[in-house]
Design the sequence.
């Protein structure tokens, strides 16, 4: 059923929304949940649907993404007829522009698409967190004979306006109206930016967009044209979805891993990742020392916990010293929190060092903005980093920050 | 200086590990939460930058073969490098099982010869240690030795367990005795040897080939001593032969305290976690009532109860109100609500149902059937065992693999053995 489908994962543009977390890597490569990267969710859902050919379109600082994908064996994408490939922007005669938008990126990779002559092309985002089973979506597309099938999810329109595309449906879930980031949405059905195209319809519309477009984005130019002129159907999905479009959303997604019945069930969703190039596959079990406390948390391998951890996601090789407190925070690979230091409501990128007695984020258990410390920054002993502060990667000797 | 060929002895059945070696060889026994014992030797070989390894297997090699695979985790996968499993194989003379360590290597000439080694490094796959073989190699080459033996100091009371070594002031070996009742030396052979190739094949031909002996420690080393130049390389780091349940248990407990010298976090042990172990499992999850102290927890565990001084493997579940103390719980073990586990080793996929108690660690009569595994009262629960709710299990108890509810007639008193079943319970369809 899933033969003849080529999948393209959009893992591209620089996204300012995740602030210092995306200064050095695309959002798809941002670590998540301790030992994963966000793109693992898209790749796992493709694997589960038996999609055999996957192109990953990346243009912004792709090296960590290239390392992570490798030859794709964690997602079972190696073998005869199977493969995953990074499609970076390239130079051609008289063209040094890179990808001007998502539609342009697809257009520039038409040769890749046509080499495999797929009947359909599945396009999805590499920076969303979900456990969607793509098979019913694909089946819906095949059964309806649509030129385009788009996945939609009911959201609170007040929270989503200006950020998502919204669709209105006619009979048989035919999409009648589509608006990209409208001020006043026509419905509460937001696009998950998962699209399935008949290849010939996609190729035709991409060529047209080259002539007529200005932003060269799928969602703002190609999709509205297809809703008007082609056969477009909707598939509605009501499972968990997180667009990770803000630091708050990213932090919330991490918190959604916790609790008795976590909204994100990594085990049940069977999320796969590459552990080996970060050496995660060799790390010893986390060691919980005398005097530690650990509640409502996840802790990855290689960590050493002597302090207290509550409602937090602790990545690999994290050291939390005795007397330290970590609360409602996300600590990525190799973070160290010194003795009697405290971290409340914060995201600490890889290898951040919080020295003895330092304090990061809000006061104790109060609400407040998320504080973010960039990769390899050092917060000096006894210093305080205010709630909502953002510290650039590599900053040393962080002093009082607002 | 060319790199020595590594011959790794991994054939041992290790009967003193009881039901842990029911269906796996000793080097394949899981260790330290996510490793197998053989990972120690393989990682040492890798860190020494050596390229070719022959693994001599005999007893239950399947889990070992699956674990080693192509050798990629230890960087043995490549154009001019490799790891090969060398099970016993028949040839012109219907050769049979390996009769000893030296015989195993003698029978593997077909593997060794085409690689044209100048030297052979002989290792055991069942020791827990971190050692730099390149220092030993350097000593061997600089000392122009024919044979170099790694040695370490042992307690006087332990000399009868080892091959004991006497040296002169220059560090040359002058005398060797296999497991003497008493000895006025404290230097014990670690079973790690570097041989000059020519010396090795001549010795094997002369001793094994002519039927005079089959074992390095018993036959080959004593026969060569006095005729060849033997050098001792002393090693003073952490080293344990984990061939008995108590040494396996103690080494496991040593992983909880880096001061013990067994520092998993510093040893850079490499492993293959794809075939079993943490694999794709997510990070472990700790519930609101979890309590932990001096405990190792790898991936895929769910902890809602209390766990003290224990080594957990992947996918272990400890329910609310359950208590685990000084225990080793292998992959996928489940401890249900209110159950108590004290000083026990529980093999993969076993389950302790709610309210059951394992009260190991008391000094009692040894286990009648597994007496020689006897180790400080530890109780041993085999793979896939299901301990029924409320059951009480004493010290020095062995529950054989796949024992289920029907295997238990009553509580299990100290020193008893409960027979297992042939395999997992197959549910009858209707």
Sequence:
């Amino acid at each position: 059923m899933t033969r003849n489908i080529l999948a393209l994962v959009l893992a591209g543009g620089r996204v300012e929304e995740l602030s210092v977390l995306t200064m050095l890597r695309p959002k798809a490569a941002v670590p998540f949940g301790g030992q994963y990267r966000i793109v693992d969710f898209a790749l796992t859902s493709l694997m589960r649907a038996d999609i055999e050919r996957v192109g990953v379109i990346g243009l912004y600082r792709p090296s960590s993404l290239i390392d992570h994908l490798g030859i794709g064996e964690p997602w079972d994408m190696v073998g005869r007829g199977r493969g995953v490939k990074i499609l970076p922007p390239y130079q051609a005669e008289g063209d040094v522009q890179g990808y001007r938008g998502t539609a342009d990126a697809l257009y520039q990779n038409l040769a890749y698409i046509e080499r495999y002559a797929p009947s359909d092309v599945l396009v999805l985002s590499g920076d969303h967190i979900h456990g969607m089973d793509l098979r019913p979506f694909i089946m819906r597309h095949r059964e309806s004979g649509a030129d385009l099938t788009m996945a939609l999810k009911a959201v609170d329109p007040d929270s989503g306006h200006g950020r998502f595309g919204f669709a209105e449906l006619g009979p048989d879930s035919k999409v009648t109206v589509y608006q990209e980031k409208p001020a006043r949405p026509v419905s509460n059905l937001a696009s998950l930016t998962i699209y399935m195209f008949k290849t010939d319809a996609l190729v035709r519309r991409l060529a047209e967009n080259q002539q007529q477009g200005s932003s060269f984005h799928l969602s703002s130019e190609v999709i509205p044209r297809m809703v008007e002129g082609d056969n477009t159907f909707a598939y509605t999905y009501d499972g968990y979805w997180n667009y990770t479009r803000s630091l708050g959303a990213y932090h919330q997604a991490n918190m959604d891993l916790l609790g008795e019945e976590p909204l994100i069930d990594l085990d049940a969703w069977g999320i796969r990742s590459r552990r080996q190039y970060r050496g995660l596959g060799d790390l010893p079990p986390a060691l919980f020392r005398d005097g530690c406390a650990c509640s409502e948390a996840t802790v990855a391998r290689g960590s050493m916990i002597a302090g207290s951890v509550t409602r937090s996601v602790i990545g690999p090789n994290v050291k939390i010293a005795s007397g330290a407190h970590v609360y409602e925070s996300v600590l990525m690979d190799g973070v160290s929190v010194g003795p009697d230091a405290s971290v409340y409501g914060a995201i600490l990128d890889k290898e951040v060092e919080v020295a003895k007695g330092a304090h990061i984020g809000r006061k104790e258990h109060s609400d407040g903005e998320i504080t973010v410390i960039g990769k390899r920054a050092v917060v000096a002993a006894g210093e305080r980093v205010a709630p909502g502060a953002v510290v650039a990667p590599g900053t040393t000797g962080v002093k009082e920050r607002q | 200086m060319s790199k020595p060929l590594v011959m790794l002895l991994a054939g041992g059945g290790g009967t003193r590990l009881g039901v842990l070696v029911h269906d796996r060889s000793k080097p394949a026994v899981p260790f330290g939460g996510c490793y197998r014992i053989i990972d120690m030797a393989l990682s040492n070989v890798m860190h020494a930058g050596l390229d070719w390894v022959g693994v001599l297997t005999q007893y239950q090699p399947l889990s070992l073969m699956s674990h080693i695979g192509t050798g990629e985790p230890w960087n043995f996968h490549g154009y001019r490098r490799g790891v090969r499993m060398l099970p016993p194989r028949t040839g012109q003379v219907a050769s049979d099982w390996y009769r000893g360590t030296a015989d195993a290597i003698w029978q593997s000439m077909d593997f060794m010869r085409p690689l044209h080694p100048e030297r052979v490094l002989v290792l055991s796959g069942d020791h827990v240690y971190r050692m730099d073989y390149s220092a030993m190699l350097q000593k061997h080459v600089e000392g122009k030795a024919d044979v170099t033996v790694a040695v370490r100091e042992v307690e006087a009371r332990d000399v009868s367990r080892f091959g004991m070594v006497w040296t002169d002031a220059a560090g040359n070996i002058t005398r060797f005795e296999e497991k003497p009742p008493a000895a006025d030396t404290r230097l014990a052979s670690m079973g790690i040897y570097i041989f000059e190739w020519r010396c090795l094949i001549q010795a094997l031909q002369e001793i094994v080939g002519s039927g005079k002996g089959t074992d390095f420690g018993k036959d080959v080393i004593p026969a060569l001593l006095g005729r060849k130049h033997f050098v001792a390389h002393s090693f003073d780091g952490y080293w344990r032969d984990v061939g008995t349940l108590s040494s396996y248990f103690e080494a496991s407990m040593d992983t909880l305290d880096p001061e013990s010298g067994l520092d998993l976090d510093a040893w850079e042990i490499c492993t293959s976690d794809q075939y079993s172990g943490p694999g794709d499992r997510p990070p472990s999850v700790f519930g609101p009532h979890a309590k932990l102290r001096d405990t190792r927890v790898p991936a895929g565990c769910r902890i809602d109860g209390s766990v003290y001084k224990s080594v957990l493997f992947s996918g272990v579940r400890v329910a609310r109100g359950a208590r685990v103390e000084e225990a080793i719980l292998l992959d996928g073990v489940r401890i249900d609500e209110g159950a108590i586990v004290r000083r026990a080793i529980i093999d993969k996929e076993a389950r302790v149902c709610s309210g059951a108690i394992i009260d190991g660690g008391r000094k009692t009569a040894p286990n009648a059937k597994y007496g020689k595994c006897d180790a400080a009262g530890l109780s041993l629960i085999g793979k896939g065992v299901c301990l029924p709710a409320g059951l009480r299990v004493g010290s020095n108890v062995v529950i054989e693999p796949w024992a289920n509810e029907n295997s238990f007639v009553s509580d299990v008193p100290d020193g008893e053995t409960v027979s297992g079943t042939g395999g997992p319970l197959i549910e009858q369809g209707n």
About this structure: Chain B touches chain A through 41 residues (CB under 8 Å). The two ends of chain B are 69 Å apart (CA to CA). Chain B has a mean pLDDT of 91. The longest helix of chain B spans residues 197-207.
